[in-house]
Write a structure and sequence with these properties.
The protein has a single domain (about 5-50, about 70-205), classed as Rossmann fold. The chain is about 35% helix and about 30% strand. It has six helices and 14 strands. It has helices at about 10-20, 25-45, 80-90, 140-150, 165-175, 200-205, and strands at about 5, 50-55, 60-65, 70-80, 95-105, 110-115, 125-130, 135, 155-160, 160, 180, 185, 185-190, 195. Strands 1-11-9-7-4-5-6 form a seven-stranded mixed sheet, with helices on both faces. β4, α3 (about 80-90) and β5 form a beta-alpha-beta unit. α1 packs antiparallel against α2. It starts with a strand and ends with a helix. About 40% of the residues are buried. The structure holds uracil (URA). The site of uracil has 10 residues, from α6.
Length: about 210
């Protein structure tokens, strides 16, 4: 079973706590999410391969490591994934971007696909799927099912807040996919919201409520 990485860095935890506050404005919520995503990108890319290259400093030629950002794909689960995507691209600007459009049927809470677009040659690329909330796990599972059809070199899932139910569901369906999160909260409520959570991430990012 792949690991669940809870990113306990004080900066990550500090920003998450600010975001949970219902008084935080849309503007600040979005900014904090972007900053948090950049911090989480450090953790998620920790084991990415590097290549040794020559570089000429003002004093002499030396060797240094570089990452091939283009080999990385950030796959955003629409629409809330967009909030995490921007911060990840801030630190890996060369990464390619995929989109999976899923909405949650309000009655059944199942994921329904309306859009799917990934870069070509996925077999040569490491893919990081982003969505702020791992709630029922239905969207994440549906996204992984679909992305696996493109045969990526590797797959990871990044969220801001998870819950035990979502972690169990995603691990059950995709035991090979490691999960990176800033928190695993107490539980899922009857309406599919994470408790204590931070509310509807999409609405808070886009100011739609
Ligand atoms: N989606 C959200 O935006 N928030 C939750 O708590 C659960 C799912």
């Amino acid at each position: 079973m792949a690991q669940v990485h809870v990113i306990s860095h004080p900066l990550v935890q500090h920003k998450l706590t600010l975001m949970r506050n219902k008084q935080v404005s849309t503007n600040n919520f979005r900014r904090l999410l972007r900053e948090l995503a950049s911090l989480m990108a450090y953790e998620v890319t920790r084991d990415m391969p590097t290549q040794l290259v020559s570089v000429e400093t003002p004093l002499e030629i030396t060797q240094g490591q570089v990452m091939d950002g283009k080999k990385l794909v950030f796959a955003s689960i629409l629409r809330a994934g967009t909030g995490l995507l921007d911060g990840m691209l801030d630190v890996v600007p060369g990464a390619r971007v995929g989109h999976v459009g899923l909405y949650r049927d309000p009655k059944t809470l199942t994921a329904v696909e309306y859009y799917f677009k990934m870069p070509q040659d996925m077999q040569d690329r490491d893919c990081v799927v982003v969505d702020p909330m791992l709630a029922t796990g239905n969207s994440a599972i549906a996204a992984m099912d679909r992305i696996k059809e493109t045969r990526p070199k590797s797959l990871k899932f990044v969220c801001l807040v998870a819950c035990p139910e979502g972690v169990a569901a995603l691990q059950g369906a995709h035991p090979d996919v490691p999960i990176y999160t800033a928190a695993v909260d107490r539980q899922l409520n009857d309406h599919g919201y994470i408790m204590p959570g931070l509310g509807d991430a999409g609405d808070r990012i886009f100011g739609t409520k």
